[in-house]
Amino acid sequence: TQRDENFDSLSSLDNHIASFTVNLEDGLLLDATPDITQTHATAAYKLLQNVNLLLTKQQENTNSYDTDANKDVKEDENRTTTINRVSVAFQDCGYGFTVADEKIYAIKYGIKSETEQPTEDS
């Protein structure tokens, strides 16, 4: 099989810890650095589903508050938003998820604390 250049490029990003790709249709792990498992892929898949569900609910609530004067809004302004990028941060690491080419590209990266001083190599 041909290598996925998008996946390969993730490891060159600053503070890279791990990365993986997930099938957008079924949540199966497609490619990963050695420390990533299907459990990580499933969590990413469910996270993006939940974010899209929240956006849909938010859009429904926004639409339900429209007054009669605002009912003539163009359909383009009334369509549901689909998210294609999500970032989640924890104390010492973060995850970035991007949807492209029917895949979820994920990267786990380190977060430097404000108290960390740059080294001479930085």
Automatic annotation (TrEMBL):
It comes from the Eukaryota. This is 9887_t:CDS:1. It comes from Acaulospora morrowiae.
